Amino acid sequence: MIPLSYYVTVSTMMFVIGLIGILIRKNFLIILFSIELMLNAANINLVAFSHHFGEIDGQVISLFIITVAAAEAAVGLAIIIVLFRRKATTNVDELNLMKW
Amino acid sequence: MAETAFFIYFATITILSSIMTIGFRSPIYCTLALLSTLLHVAGLFILLNAEFIAAIQVIVYAGAVLVLYLFVLMLLNLKKTEDFLHKQVWVALFFGLVLLAEILIGLFKAPFFTKTPVPKSEELAALGNTAEIGLALFNKYLLPFEIVGIILLGAVIGALVLAKKYRQADA
């Protein structure tokens, strides 16, 4: 029987890795990957607590999170394709049209 | 005992391959590391007796979303760049680790870790994981389920409209 705190520690580490990834990488695609990492960390947390408290609700909500992540991937990739067609780059430093 | 060994394996590989996801220079390697992360997270779900979520994780994430990412990556044909990191790497690492420490300290002081786990009730345990999720999804969570359907529809239409090539006459 693995204690709940181990799972929470793993998911926290994964979340922070995703956050660091968003902060340091220049490639738009890798930023999307980091968002997926953070969503997965949330999923681990939800399922671990659902197991710990003997309720099914956490698992149902993690299903919803997986669905929303799939939708986010579709729209994000469409945005990347449009940007690449216009600017031929996925470097977020060069995408500064909306910066003041 | 075997459970602990499997947990250590899955947790270690999950963390290592998520570090690789943000660490590799080539986006293809990053995608493959993300694939490994997702598969090992599915392993953690199985250890938590959530077989249905583990199956969905493999089918939807590793099967569909990752293939979509790889497909777009092949389509884009990115050039190799020398500088793939921002200048603020050390600041980001420092504040990331500070945040990790803060979250862990806050969590371990929280009251729920000292409580003993609540076992599942007999009738729910007899149903099995998938049937249990189905019952919850179509009774208690029926409205969120429908809303998620609308979100998916919006994403499909949005992606189509964004990625469509307009001819000169339509634009």
Could you characterize what this model shows?
The complex is a heterodimer of chains A (100) and B (171). Chain A is mainly alpha-helical and 100 residues long. Chain A has a single domain (4-87), classed as Helix Hairpins. Chain A has three helices and no strands. Chain A has helices at 4-24, 28-53, 57-87. Chain A is elongated and about 50 Å long. Chain B is mostly helical and 171 residues long. Chain B has one domain: Four Helix Bundle (Hemerythrin (Met), subunit A) (Up-down Bundle), CATH 1.20.120.1200. Helix content of chain B is 75%, strand content 0%. Chain B has seven helices and no strands. The radius of gyration of chain B is 21 Å and the shape is extended. The mean pLDDT of chain B is 87. Chains A and B meet through α1, α2 and α3 of A and α1, α2, α3, α4 and α6 of B.
Largest sheet of chain B: none
Share in β-strands of chain A: under 5%
List low-pLDDT spans of chain A. Answer: none
CATH-level-2 architecture of chain A: Orthogonal Bundle
Oligomer: heterodimer
CATH homology superfamily name of chain B: NADH-ubiquinone/plastoquinone oxidoreductase chain 6, subunit NuoJ
Tertiary shape of chain B? extended
Largest interface: A-B, 70 and 84 residues
- Percentage of residues in DSSP E strands of chain B: under 5%
Comma- or semicolon-separated keywords:
heterodimer, A: Helix Hairpins, 3 helices, 78% helix, B: mainly alpha, Four Helix Bundle (Hemerythrin (Met), subunit A), 7 helices, 0% strand
